[in-house]
């Protein structure tokens, strides 16, 4: 049985603790994979602010993790996402997976991070030295999600 752990945090994300909860927790898992996203330093950036749609966002994260767990036969699937105001270098998102073998864990983490960028309702506001503005999903985010969706569709056909 897969253990799914998803959540939205309005406090600091502790990626070391999240990874420590995965590593060694399941002795039948040979693969433990993770991804950590952090606020990128860009010219003039002073902060990044994320908002979400309570209830709906949590459901979207749980659905993404469950799909990954079923598809790659994971033992554990984790998605923790930060909201609120963050500065460069602060962790935004932690995605992790455990599976019997590394390829399943690695692919599942790739799938989960790529899908949450387009399927979970987060809104991003960038604060710079010259003001603030909202930004939408990048075309590369949609292309990354489409890669997984196309791959899964062709394998299921």
Helix-strand layout with pairing:
Elements: E1 3-9, H1 15-22, E2 31-38, E3 45-52, H2 56-72, E4 76-82, E5 84-86, E6 91-99, H3 102-119, E7 122-128, E8 131-135, H4 139-156
Parallel strand pairs: 1-4
Antiparallel strand pairs: 2-6, 3-5, 3-7, 4-6, 7-8
Helix pairs in contact: 2-3, 3-4
Characterization of this structure:
There is one protein chain. A hairpin with a 2-residue loop joins strand 7 (122-128) and strand 8. The chain has a single domain, classed as Aldehyde Oxidoreductase, domain 3. The strands form two sheets. Strands 1-4-6-2 form a four-stranded mixed β-sheet, sandwiched between helices. A four-stranded antiparallel β-sheet has the order 5-3-7-8, with no helix packed on it. It has four helices and eight strands. The protein is α+β, with helices and mostly antiparallel strands. The longest helix is centred in the C-terminal third of the chain and has 18 residues, at 102-119.
Brief overview:
The protein has 157 residues and is of the alpha+beta class. The chain contains 4 helices and 8 strands.
């Amino acid at each position: 049985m897969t253990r799914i752990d998803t959540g939205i945090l309005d406090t600091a994300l502790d990626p070391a603790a999240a990874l420590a909860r995965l590593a060694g927790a399941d002795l039948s898992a040979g693969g433990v994979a993770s991804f950590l996203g952090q606020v990128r330093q860009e010219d003039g950036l002073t902060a990044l602010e994320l908002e979400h749609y309570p209830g709906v966002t949590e459901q979207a994260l749980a659905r993404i993790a469950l799909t990954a767990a079923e598809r790659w036969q994971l033992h554990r699937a984790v998605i923790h996402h930060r909201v609120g105001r963050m500065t460069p270098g602060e962790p935004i998102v932690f995605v992790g997976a455990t599976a019997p073998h590394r390829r399943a864990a690695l692919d599942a983490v790739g799938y989960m991070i790529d899908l949450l960028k387009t399927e979970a309702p987060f809104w991003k506001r960038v604060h710079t030295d010259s003001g603030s503005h909202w930004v939408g999903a990048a075309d590369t985010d949609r292309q990354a999600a489409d890669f997984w969706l196309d791959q899964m569709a062709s394998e299921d056909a």
